Amino acid sequence: MNRKLSGIRESKAANMVLYFAALCITVPLLILPVWIFFGRWQWPELFPSAFSLRALKSMFSDAGMVEVLFSSVMLSACVAILATLTGIMAARALVLYDFRGKKLVSFFSMLPMIVPSASFAMGVHVVFLRMGLGDTWTGLLLVHMIYSVPYTVSIMTDITAMAGDRLELQAQVLGVSPLKAFWHVSLPVMMPGVLSSLSMAYIVSFSQYFLTLLMGGGRVRTLSVVMVPYIQSGDRTVASAYATLFIMTLMIVFGVMEFFARRKYEQAFAD
Questions:
Q1: Reduced to 3 states, what is the DSSP secondary structure of residue 270?
Q2: Digit-coded pLDDT (tens) for 147-203
Q3: Residue ranges of the domains in the chain?
Q4: Which CATH topology does 55-270 take?
Q5: For residue 215, with 0-12 CB atoms within 10 Å meaning exposed, 13-18 middle and 19 or more buried, which class applies?
């Protein structure tokens, strides 16, 4: 009886912690779209005052906003796809094969997560400038990949270790080519991890400010480069508009990725 009561209390406490965490995340997200339409919301006022459309006018008056949004989405999508493909190949090499220097390769694949970002970014910037990749979309794509690949390798290594290659090898014994065996047997099992890798790489790329500003030299404009100065200047109204657009873009892209991943997963198991 005492154990049952203790379990109920622990469950209630855990639920309260979860509800509090959800509240802390949800409330700021709900405040952002409200703040767009008000010019002043001072503490300790419970409700905002001074209705204003200045944020929307400022955002939509920028003639290049559509181009900035499109460029940000396309850049992050390319980074997510390339980083995930790199993560899949690296994970299969690290998990399924034994070779000399395997631990060293694993360590270097995680290096961008270990080294302070400012130091690493400065080093990459110097190298890329000497290679003629400074202030270019190609350089920006590569530097975003450098910071995204450690996440995809980490996720795909765990997924590959869980999936293994036993079913894939059995399919090859039955005459299926290695590529088809991977595509039709291993990939559907790994799809949740692939989706997680795509999502993580996309978030890392889409939210990069310092690297984009450093490598782009102010010439390459993404949504984060346009948004952050408003946050730093304390213009919460305009910053809220860009932040809301930022979050909505992420949610739409995630919805599309999940749709196609789910469709691939269902088709694979239907066959």
A1: helix
A2: 899 999 999 998 888 888 887 888 888 888 888 888 888 888 888 888 888 888 988
A3: 2-53, 55-270
A4: MetI-like fold (1.10.3720)
A5: buried
